[in-house]
Structures are given as structure tokens and as C-alpha cells.
Amino acid sequence: xxxxxxxxxxxxxxxxxxxxxxxxxxxxxxxxxxxxxxxxxxxxxxxxxxxxxxxxxxxxxxxxxxxxxxxxxxxxxxxxxxxxxxxxxxxxxxxxxxxxxxxxxxxxxxxxxxxxxxxxxxxxxxxxxxxxxxxxxxxxxxxxxxxxxxxxxxxxxxxxxxxxxxxxxxxxxxxxxxxxxxxxxxxxxxxxxxxxxxxxxxxxxxxxxxxxxxxxxxxxxxxxxxxxxxxxxxxxxxxxxxxxxxxxxxxxxxxxxxxxxxxxxxxxxxxxxxxxxxx
Length: 279
Description:
- By secondary structure, the protein is an alpha/beta fold.
- It has one domain (2-277): NAD(P)-binding Rossmann-like Domain (Rossmann fold).
- 42% of the residues lie in helices and 18% in strands.
- It has eleven helices and twelve strands.
- It has helices at 11-22, 44-47, 72-90, 110-123, 143-152, 172-184, 202-212, 225-235, 244-252, 259-265, 272-277, and strands at residues 2-6, 26-30, 56-59, 94-98, 128-134, 137-138, 156-160, 166-167, 170-171, 190-194, 200-201, 219-223.
- Strand 3 (56-59), helix 3 (72-90) and strand 4 (94-98) form a beta-alpha-beta unit.
């Protein structure tokens, strides 16, 4: 198949492209490295020339923080919505949207709401669609993983609420396998949460990283959420990822039932210890 991937230069996009190429598919990369700016692709007509001879579209574009040049509204909603409408006109039979766990009816953050807005557009259209909502994705080459590993190496960990937030990370190989299966599945019009085999607390996640490097457990200093939230209003300009919206998302946790994914794949997703051993 000839598959168009947006955000192909990002962590998830690169791994998907590599997996699809190894399976014999052809890839059309739509990203800034190849001269494509999502800010200029908010109209259906802008996408139509890019969809010529394309069989499947996979949208992997995503940012975790906004900048003056990149907004959730454009990158997560308006540009993908234009792409999805163009897919209908171009006769694309299958579209895979990489959304985010938490982009649902209970979403409150700007990040999740913008993702959900695009998901809702896709789900309203008459084509074969998949909305994949991954939790925290880990694997080689991920910037967030590199950040977490640096944090885990600290002998003392000052963590919001002691790091008790529940997460359910998924290995990048399980994500790419899911995408590959979406290409040939008899199912479509499917929303699927992508999570690992089981959940754990954020502090246990960090301690697991320390254990993998033969380090003893770090000392944890719990910081009240109210204090962290108050400080973030000042420090977010230095550390944009630690903004109030992201802190609220972290506090809420990020987990789901793994059974629907296991049923779709035909096997359970990777457990965290097995996944971590593959680094």
C-alpha cells in the first residue's frame, strides 16, 4: 500500500514508518522536514494534491505544549479535520488517527479537547476510520523517555503528590503492531485505547528505571499539588511542559482497560518489565 503519514519525523511517526516499510509498504512523509507546515494545511484543497495515489492516511501529528508558532487548535484539530474531509473527496478508504488516551467525554485539558475535536470529525465521516488513543508511549528514541530517565537518576525525587498518579505506558512496538493490523483488519470505525498490560504509579515507573540501571530506590519528597500548580504559573515560561494543564493531566492519571487492545491484537500488550528490557 501507498501510505501517507503526517508527523513522520516525530517519535511515533518514525517508528510507524519503519514498521510499515519493513512490511513492504511505501511511505509518503508529510512533515516539516519535507517542507510541509501544518499551519498552511487547514483547508481541504491544500491536502488534495498530497493524496493522489494514496491508499491509507495515518495522522501522527501532535504536540504536548503550545508555542507562538504551534497551537493545539491548528495542529490537533483544524489541519487534521481538513485532511479527513479531503480523504473523503479523494476516495481514501482507510484513515488512522493517533489521538491520546483521555481525549474522551471527560476531557478537560486544551490538549485532550483539541485531540477529541479531530477525533469527532473523523468519526462523523463515511470512510473506514480508526481512532487510536495511546497512553504514555515508551521506546528507543523518545524525547519524553529521555527526560524521565534523567529524572529517575536523581537520588532525591521531589514529586507532585509523591508520584502516586496511575499511568499505563505502552511500548512503541505494540503501537506500531496495532497500526499495522488496522491496515488489513475487517473491523473499522473503531476507537481503541492503547495501553500496556497493567498500570502502575508514576513513582514505581521511575523506580523501575532506576532498578534497570542497578540503582537503589530514590528518596521521594512529596510536593502538594496546590504548591506545584502555583509555582507552574511562573516556571512554565522556563519549563513549558510543566504548565498547569499538563500538571492537571498528570494528576488525573492515564490508564484504561487493556482487554479491547488484547482482543484486537490477538495477544496481551507487553508488560512494562518486558518492554523495558528491550531498550
